[in-house]
Design a protein that fits this description.
The complex is a heterodimer.
Chain A (H helix, E strand, L loop, with lengths): L11 H5 L5 H15 L1 H4 L2 H26 L7 H18 L4 H20 L8 H20 L1 H4 L5 E2 L4 E2 L2 E2 L3 H22 L3 H11 L1 H6 L4 H27 L1 E2 L6 H14 L4 H28 L4 H5 L2 H16 L4 H14 L5
Antiparallel strand pairs in A: 1-4, 2-3
Chain B lengths: L1 H20 L23 E9 L6 H21 L14 E9 L4 H13 L4 E4 L2 H14 L2 E4 L13 E3 L4 H14 L8 E7 L2 H4 L4 H10 L2 E8 L8 H9 L4 E4 L3 H13 L2 E2 L4 E2 L1 E5 L4 H8 L7 E3 L13 H13 L9 H22 L7 H8 L27 E8 L2 E9 L8
Parallel strand pairs in B: 1-2, 3-4, 4-5, 6-7, 6-8, 8-11, 9-10, 11-12
Antiparallel strand pairs in B: 12-13, 13-14
Helix pairs in contact in B: 2-12, 3-4, 5-7, 9-10, 12-13
The chains are: A mainly alpha, B alpha/beta.
Chain lengths: 350, 434
């Protein structure tokens, strides 16, 4: 009996495939079956958590392309989500469009807004670009609030739930399926985008933009493309969010969300789609744990009661990000790669 | 491999299509229990009050006091089986109240998961922590027919009225009350000039509606414009205040919490703006800018500031108000030596009272252990009429189209660092809901 000591590919196509072995396909199928069977055995709460995670993953995938792959740090991602969210909200609530037509428009709308705010990236980078994207967050929200007749201003807009053939996706399970299907498509698209010519150009710009330009990479085109693609993901994510809440409000897109999205990338590992999923899942689970353990902590220390729980989430999230920056700057995905490597080489791993 | 991929793709499409269509896409609206109460052996039933509290963020200090109010009120009811010292009705002996709470950090996504968690734990009533969380929770609460009290009182609660009830007047009505008071005392020539000076948030901007401006113009004001200040300013709002001065504004109206109103007024004083300063102007705020917190913190700097819709101060001068006497009683019993002095403690008691009253009324119709949220909504919240809170608020009345509990409100002014009642003014229902 011969034991395989590796996976041997016979063509470039096989070598570049995302799923290269039958084991990969079986694992994927098993994961999808488990994921899509969730509503059969999960509570409403779990479905809500997973739905929110799915929506966040889509948004952070966009940020990963922009920041993790192209190196253009953005702290205005929640603002771009708001742009997409309001495009979809206005099209469906004010103009009576179908959700299915409004969703791609939300992505495109946010993408165009992203291009506008991406223009400074051609002249500035690093800290200065961060400040420009922070401005984007506030300008987008300000603009939304000014057009009260269209956007509802501070009161926001009631947004209809999506429909399929007259059936309203009102239940938690149906919206969970919608979000998960779009999330799977988004992960697949993002994974493939970074394997294209544009994806390789993004990485070149991130690693050394001068060298990339000398090599023939058009910075103008590719930086704006990264902004466009990143914001398309954000727009779709924002649209899904407001249709889930059935309400669009600027309060759903606070500045701190943009910061936490970046934190998710740091914890998960920048420049990796798996890292995005790890980052979102781990910080969201931390959030949920804090929510549940806060009151328990207050019960143990009644003298400080509510104060014991207050700000616990902020403190822990901040602490986790600091610890990752110091001890594992490559994020959870690096640890995951080490585990996989150990498993592959066993019993000769070291 | 190609065949395998084809098989995989086809099976995946079939599976996804089946799973998308299989689950019920619509939900039935819950109906109240109609069966006559069945005789049940006496056993202790635990009913929950509470909900989400924004213990992290700008409202943390206010909310910690609200939570303390909830917990003390639950202890009082459990120990005495009474609803308040001035009330004769008793709370069912076989029912125990327990406060369930979670910190939602004012984040909509956390508010949604907490709602699902607490609903699964059997909460029959709920609580909203602020405007940010009220918006995404309005529909889920309405779908589940769960009645909720709210710390937020934005006009969005009325479009259309759902299942969230406030004990504050809506912010627009609070602005209307200040405008009424100011106009009644206006001694200048011509029309008084009014502008908004309000927080740059959903709650702050919620007063900026056409109906509000139309009301002010109708009763005799000249509307000049609006200025927005961050909810918690990090720099003095000099530009905004200078704009008011340049535009000769006599009265400002707005929603601010104390971390916003205090630095704003300090800067106004520095610029010589105030009721007793070189530039005569009156600043009016909605209830979250409670004078009971503002006046002691500001001293005489805050002279002339007016707040509508707040609670009576918890000082000795108000000790004969039944609600304040109740507050003193709870403090002596549960916080001896370390009293909770924040005014929002009263808000916690009032909200807990409303939730408890809804449960009590519903338990008169349906046995406590068989209660469903819709029972508490229809036999409880909707039946609350003239609920006395011991003058902490006006008597509260709720109904299917009446989510704003109060019909009148107090208007107070800071005078020499003391809270002085200017009078009670009616709610005009300025915001016309759909």
């Amino acid at each position: 009996m011969s034991l395989p000591s590796g996976v041997f590919q016979e063509s470039y196509g096989q070598d570049m495939a995302i799923f290269r072995t039958k084991a990969h396909w079986v694992l994927l199928l098993a994961f999808l079956v488990l994921l899509f069977a969730m509503p059969l055995y999960s509570s409403d709460r779990i479905l809500t958590i997973l739905t929110i995670m799915g929506i966040t993953i889509i948004s952070v995938l966009g940020l990963n392309i922009l920041t993790g792959y192209c190196g253009q740090i953005s702290i205005g991602h929640a603002g771009f989500m708001a742009a997409g969210a309001y495009v979809s909200a206005i099209l469906t609530a004010k103009l009576g469009w179908s959700f299915w037509a409004a969703l791609p428009c939300a992505g495109l709308g946010a993408g165009l807004v992203g291009i506008i705010f991406g223009l400074p990236s051609l002249k500035i980078k690093g800290f200065y670009l961060i400040m420009a994207t922070v401005a984007a967050q506030f300008i987008i929200i300000w603009v939304i609030l000014q057009f009260q007749n269209i956007t509802g201003g501070a009161d926001g807009l009631s947004v209809p739930r999506p429909e399929i053939g007259g059936l309203v996706l009102k239940s938690k399970a149906s919206y969970f399926y919608l979000v998960m299907i779009i999330t799977c498509i988004a992960v697949y698209l993002a994974k493939n985008i970074v394997r294209t010519r544009a994806g390789r150009a993004f990485v070149a710009i991130r690693d050394n933009d001068l060298a990339a330009e000398v090599m023939g990479v058009n910075l103008w085109t590719y930086k704006l493309t990264a902004f466009f693609i990143g914001c398309v993901f954000a727009g779709v994510s924002g649209a899904l969010l407001v249709h889930y809440y059935a309400y669009a409000s600027t309060d759903h897109f606070p500045f701190m969300n943009s910061v936490w999205y970046l934190g998710m990338l740091i914890v998960g590992g920048m420049g990796s789609m798996t890292g995005v999923i790890f980052g979102v899942v781990s910080l969201k689970l931390l959030d949920e744990a804090v929510t549940v353990f806060g009151p328990m902590l207050a019960a143990i220390f009644p003298a400080i009661a509510a104060q014991a729980a207050a700000s616990l989430g902020l403190i822990l999230r901040g602490l986790v990000i600091i610890l990752f920056l110091i001890f594992e700057p490559r994020g959870l995905v690096h640890r995951w790669e080490l585990v996989k490597s150990y498993y592959r080489r066993w019993p000769f791993s070291y | 491999m190609t065949k395998f991929r084809l098989f995989f793709a086809v099976s995946l499409v079939v599976m996804l299509a089946a799973l998308l269509v299989l689950p019920a896409c619509t939900k039935e609206t819950p109906a109240p229990t109609t069966a006559a109460p069945a005789p049940t052996p006496p056993k202790t039933v635990t009913l929950y009050i509470g909900g989400t509290f924004a213990l992290t963020g700008a409202y943390a200090e206010d909310t910690a006091a609200v939570l303390a109010g909830f917990e003390d009120y639950a202890k009082y009811v459990n120990e005495n089986k009474k609803l308040a010292p001035w009330r004769t009705e008793t709370f069912p002996a076989d029912v125990k109240l327990e406060v369930l709470w979670r910190d939602d950090e004012l984040k909509p996504e956390k508010a949604l998961t907490i709602f699902d968690e607490l609903k699964a734990k059997g909460m029959l009533v709920y609580r909203i922590s602020g405007s940010q969380t009220a918006l995404p929770l309005m529909n889920p609460l309405n779908d589940a027919r769960i009645g909720a009290t709210s710390m937020a009182a934005g006009p969005y609660l009325l479009s259309p009225p759902k299942t969230i009830f406030t004990n504050y007047p809506l912010y627009t009505d609070e602005m209307g009350a200040i405008a009424d008071w100011y106009l009644a005392n206006w001694k200048g020539t011509g029309k008084p000039r009014v502008a908004y000076l309000t927080a740059d948030s959903a709650s702050g901007r919620s007063i900026d509606i056409p109906e509000m401006e139309a009301y002010l113009t109708k009763i005799g004001y000249e509307f000049v414009g609006k200025q927005f200040v961050p909810m918690v300013p990090t720099t003095p709002p000099t530009t905004q205040l200078s704009w008011l001065k340049d535009n000769k504004v006599n009265l400002t109206l707005g929603f601010m919490i104390n971390p916003g109103s205090q630095p704003t007024i300090k800067e106004a004083v520095r610029l010589g703006m105030g009721t007793n300063l070189d530039y005569k102007i009156t600043f009016g705020f909605a209830a979250p800018s409670h004078l009971a917190v503002f006046a002691p913190a500001m001293g005489t700097l805050g002279d002339g500031v007016v707040v509508a819709g707040s609670y009576p101060p918890m000082d000795q001068a108000h000790a004969n108000v039944p609600g304040i006497a109740f507050y003193n009683q709870l403090q002596a019993k549960y916080h001896a030596g370390k009293p909770v002095t924040h005014i929002m403690y009263l808000a916690g008691i009032v909200e807990a009272m409303i939730q408890t009253e809804a449960l009590r009324l519903a338990a008169l119709k349906v046995p406590a252990d068989q209660l469903k949220p819709v029972d508490v909504l229809e036999y409880g919240f909707y039946q609350i009429k003239n609920l006395s809170t011991g003058d902490m608020t006006p008597p509260l009345t709720f109904g299917p189209s009446d989510v704003e509990g109060a019909d009148v409100m107090r208007v107070d002014q800071d005078q020499n660092g003391q809270v002085v009642l200017l009078g009670n003014y009616p709610c005009h229902g300025i915001y016309k809901h759909e």
